[in-house]
Amino acid sequence: xxxxxxxxxxLQLQSGQGKNGLWKKQExxxxxxxxxxxxxxxxxxxxxVDQFPLATGEIITVFFDVESREYNGKWYTDAKAWKITxxxxxxxxxxxxxxxxxxxASDDFSAADDLPF
Length: 117
Description:
Elements: E1 2-10, E2 14-18, E3 21-32, E4 39-45, H1 48-51, E5 59-71, E6 74-86
Antiparallel strand pairs: 1-3, 1-5, 2-3, 3-4, 5-6
């Protein structure tokens, strides 16, 4: 999944020692745009923390996975970012209607172009 918005807040970097070695996690709050802006807490884990440095106020697109886990009868959901692109756009232009110059005029069709149904 992906969502675009502005980095609203950077939370404190967390790190520790686990059974698989050292770990680190950076959480940040993204505020979406629109009629009803939403705030979403995302997390970056491990080398992704250094790979995608962020600053408050940046416009970014976050590519993420959502995962839920059960612990002691309660469910916890995490939105884990795996890629971040910076800037207003995602690098592609949205598909829109074709310009009128690309659409053939009705007299450009021949009888051979007619469909049998």
